[in-house]
């Protein structure tokens, strides 16, 4: 019998299960426009991975997606044909390998071998030689050395250099520079902060849970919000009883602060009817409902998509009171003008302020997306002002620092109305520094450790 008989072949190595899971998640994100956090969390639950395996898988997925543009620039120098000619599944394997070699403490020999084994299992033996050759070439330089080789020179093209070195599309780098009003060290700090995985931040919904309970469960108090706690070392927040019961939730501290600012704005007269005009998935709705419940008031939450309206209801399940969740279009109110005392208009936006937690978004969004959203943002703010009573307040909120989605929208709407004025929101967040020139507020990852939330406070006259 020939030595090449299948009976005499050594059995093929099985791929590492964590890397295989990470690869499958990345494929679902890049090929099906999945959301990395949702797809990854489901995969971890399905495979019952926890502890170090879950942490390793998370870094593989999030890091590969976050640094995708930088790795593509490096791989373009390491592959003999244009990346556009590579099959997408092969390109994702190479990106996953590059992340282990350049940004993780994985032995290069082990990383290459594991990726070759994974290639055989996922897309076939014929591709394994190319993966082996390309990743070995990538492993010959450090990340800094590769960036020096593939990025434009810093002095010749600052934004082009930062786009490669900091893994952001050039147009986003330019947008951030415009929003900051600088292209110096602060821009560098912001881009670095965008590449730091965010901490798991919790909110103790007032009247339902307190910070001491979350601290006893292993969290530490947040920096700015009176309701915030940070879960140290990551882990599953669902293991905390206050979270699993809905008395607390997972919510970025920036999202808490804009809700706190709206609830803290001075108001004369009635203060019992609040509106969340764009409520899904309901984190801010739950915090506002908990606050207004303590004032014997109620919240109405509006969400156009039925499945997201169900998420809002789920978030409100533990909050006492006759709060309503309506499925409807916030630009076409079904309630009389001036029905509410306070209104939150947290409008759909590009999400450029949340790139820490949604790393895939930076490669999906385009400048055209910003312009397409602009008319909807203006209509929603106009509807919010019409929905609030004279003397009442509106919080216009976006999770983006892009001027076209932030102050420019407010200016355009107020220019068409004579019954609303912009007020200084900064005094509503005492103790929080560097809120901007005012009267609106801009939070930043590098300054506040939050998403880059924008807030304008508008009072109807």
Automatic annotation (TrEMBL):
Residues 176-461 form the SAM-dependent MTase RsmB/NOP-type domain. Pfam families: Methyltr_RsmB-F, NusB. It comes from the Bacteria. InterPro entries: MeTrfase_RsmB-F_NOP2_cat, MeTrfase_RsmB-F_NOP2_dom, NusB-like_sf, NusB_RsmB_TIM44, RCMT, RsmB/NOL1/NOP2-like_CS, SAM-dependent_MTases_sf. S-adenosyl-L-methionine binds at residues 278-284, 303, 329, 346. CDD domains: AdoMet_MTases. Gene3D superfamilies: NusB-like, Vaccinia Virus protein VP39. Belongs to the class I-like SAM-binding methyltransferase superfamily. RsmB/NOP family. This is 16S rRNA (Cytosine967-C5)-methyltransferase. It comes from Kribbella orskensis.
């Amino acid at each position: 019998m020939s030595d090449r008989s299948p009976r005499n072949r050594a059995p093929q190595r099985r791929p590492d299960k964590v890397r295989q899971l990470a690869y499958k998640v990345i494929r679902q994100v890049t090929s099906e426009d999945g959301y990395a956090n949702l797809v990854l969390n489901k995969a971890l639950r399905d495979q019952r991975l926890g502890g170090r395996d879950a942490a390793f898988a998370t870094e593989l997925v999030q890091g590969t997606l976050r640094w995708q543009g930088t790795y593509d620039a490096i791989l373009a120098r390491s592959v003999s044909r244009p990346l556009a000619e590579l099959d997408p599944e092969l390109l994702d394997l190479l990106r996953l390998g590059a992340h282990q070699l350049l940004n993780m403490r994985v032995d290069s020999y082990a990383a290459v071998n594991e990726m070759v084994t994974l290639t055989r299992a996922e897309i076939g033996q014929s591709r394994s030689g190319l993966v082996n050759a390309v990743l070995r070439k990538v492993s010959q330089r450090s990340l800094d050395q590769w960036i020096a080789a593939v990025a434009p020179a810093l002095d010749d093209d600052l934004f082009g250099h930062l786009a490669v070195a900091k893994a952001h599309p050039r147009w986003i780098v330019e947008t951030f520079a415009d929003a900051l009003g600088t292209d110096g060290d602060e821009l560098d700090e912001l881009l670095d902060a965008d590449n730091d995985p965010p901490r798991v931040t919790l909110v103790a919904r007032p009247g339902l849970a307190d910070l001491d309970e979350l601290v006893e469960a292993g969290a530490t108090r947040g920096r700015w919000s009176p309701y915030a706690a940070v879960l140290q070392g990551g882990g599953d927040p669902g293991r905390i009883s206050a979270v699993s019961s809905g008395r607390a939730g997972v919510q970025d501290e920036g999202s808490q602060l804009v809700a706190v600012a709206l609830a803290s704005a001075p108001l004369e007269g009635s203060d019992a009817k609040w509106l969340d005009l764009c409520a899904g998935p309901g984190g801010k709705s739950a915090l506002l409902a908990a606050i207004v419940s303590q004032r014997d008031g109620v919240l109405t939450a509006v969400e156009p998509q039925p499945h997201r309206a169900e998420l809002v209801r789920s978030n409100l399940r533990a909050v006492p009171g006759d709060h309503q969740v309506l499925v409807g279009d916030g630009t076409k109110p079904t309630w009389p003008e001036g029905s509410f005392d306070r209104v939150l208009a947290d409008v759909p936006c590009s999400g450029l302020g949340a790139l820490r937690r949604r790393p895939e978004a930076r490669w999906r969004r385009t400048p055209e997306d910003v312009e397409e959203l602009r008319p909807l943002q203006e209509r929603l703010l106009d509807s919010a002002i019409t929905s609030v009573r004279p003397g009442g307040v509106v919080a216009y909120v976006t999770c983006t620092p892009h001027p076209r989605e932030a102050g420019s929208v407010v200016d355009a709407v107020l220019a068409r109305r004579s019954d609303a004025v912009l007020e200084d929101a900064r005094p509503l967040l005492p103790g929080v520094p560097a809120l901007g020139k005012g009267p609106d507020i801009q939070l930043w990852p590098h300054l506040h450790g939050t998403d880059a939330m924008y807030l304008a406070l508008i009072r109807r006259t």
